[in-house]
Design goal:
homodimer; alpha+beta; seven-stranded mixed sheet; three-stranded antiparallel sheet
Amino acid sequence: MAGGVKRVLAAALESFVAEIFVAAGTPEADAATVAEVLVWANLRGIDSHGVLRVPGYVGRIASGEFNPRPDISVVADLPAATLIDADRAFGPVGMSRGMDIAIAKAREAGVGVCIVRRVTHMAAIGWFALRAVDAGMIGLAFGSSRPNMAYHGARARGVATSPIAIAVPGKRAPVLLDMSTSESSMGRIMLARDSGTPLQPGWALAEDGTPTTDADEARMLTPLGGAKGAGLALMFECLTGVLVGHPLIATAIGPDAETRHSQNGFALAIDIASFAEPERYRRDIAALAGALKSLPVAEGHDAIRLPGERGERTMAERLEAGVPLPAGTWRRLAEIADGFGIAMPPVVEG
Amino acid sequence: MAGGVKRVLAAALESFVAEIFVAAGTPEADAATVAEVLVWANLRGIDSHGVLRVPGYVGRIASGEFNPRPDISVVADLPAATLIDADRAFGPVGMSRGMDIAIAKAREAGVGVCIVRRVTHMAAIGWFALRAVDAGMIGLAFGSSRPNMAYHGARARGVATSPIAIAVPGKRAPVLLDMSTSESSMGRIMLARDSGTPLQPGWALAEDGTPTTDADEARMLTPLGGAKGAGLALMFECLTGVLVGHPLIATAIGPDAETRHSQNGFALAIDIASFAEPERYRRDIAALAGALKSLPVAEGHDAIRLPGERGERTMAERLEAGVPLPAGTWRRLAEIADGFGIAMPPVVEG
């Protein structure tokens, strides 16, 4: 296969990844959740947030940044809102717990919120929003983390590329918006670096904060639309980190900067049945999708797509053909697996 | 004063505008609310959403699109979420009712949501988010309306420039993000038209959906960052219009398009005291603001600003010096006032 890419069936990849996290000290159910979210990211084509993260996660368990056996506790519990402390749990573990709480609250109260304090890397945030859709609800999730993006008007990191995901059920597939608050993404920067092509102007800054189109020099992303993306990312920090006494931005700026990995998350579920007949809702979302897809296509585009549509198609393809793993990812996974005495998953013959 | 601009003190302008709406059939309390929101927009420097809208509002009362005496009713009421039908109320009347309900819910349940169906033009959406801050809470508001922005990948209107506002209390002033989901704004297009300068590439499309930098040809705005802004605007329609049986996009596309003005709104309040000590929260927001403002300033910028900071400064200036009204706005207000036999407000001597 091209460039040494190996393909592995999703189920086999998931078992393999779960086995690694169990070997690293994670309870089986939690290891399965982390594996499911990472492989889901690969299936949707978001490879930068998929199993290539496994070695980093294992390293952060060793360094104490990620806690494989967290004591997740309820800090505040209101009729429609809960604050939990995730005790440095894996993002997928802490955030799925958070969304489950939000869903349960929404079933009683119409809407439910759970703020998840001191969680770690969330992998693909869209997965948590879809968890609400699986429960017949609308899901919304966002997060905050240490600054890795320039603040608007500054030539230094001031906010994070904090993502937001919103998912609603449709007639066949859900509509899933899953976006960062940055103009571009580190994935695209890395791709440009690997292919030797210049970046689009406005995507990135060098370490000294000056704009650059040289992928090798790029060190910081820029906020989506300048003030707007920076503002959204800042408000996500205000709605999570600052609100729950675990600020991640103010503490990371200045001489005594705290830079250890940490995140906070926000999960919101809206119970559709409280407002509408659910079947009618799914039909109306399908009608909206149909209306948009029937608009005239702009030059330079091959089709009009709903949020998440591309991911759905990639997932269908990869479920059938297996998840492609580049040679570097395969090699790094093999090193980790070797250390734990775990066999690599079977490769799909091409 | 330059270009025939007249300055009017905010209080006098507010009384004048309220008087006009009373004369047009609006109950006094509601007229005062509409006047307050419109003048607030002027005070903050958002003149495109201020009192220049008065003649249009009066015209839409006459056409039946705006209802000055709405029968606002509760359609669904859950412990933390309410759906109200605004019966074509003025946006400020329907949305302030909605935010008040969200605030009351949040006081009991930690968070509260109110979806406002069949409301009309909201003027400045930030005002509703600040209403929650006045109650010691975090406020979030967004809306959906008829498509006036190209959908990503389409060369036709498919979504609205739907705004979102998020406000949190700070030590002195609140932090208020108030942004549209479009790359630019109609205000900036109009400014370019008036000053004869070209638009930035990517801001607008002509009526046939092709990109243009000619302000006179510009008919549609483009979504912020392409897919991201279009996706956010689409999700706002899914979370309001479609959810409450009053879709505004699907019904506006196609041969039998419904184009009468209408909007839906979403108001969310988060009770800070449920999660944190309110005074500590305001202090931490101030610390975050301080940390960001101490970052090195990028070339081409004179300062690092928090969302809403510019508006706060403009408000302080205009509260002192009066709200500037261009000659055209003054003339159109005078025509309306004359029709109702109402005297124009006193002008500040310069």
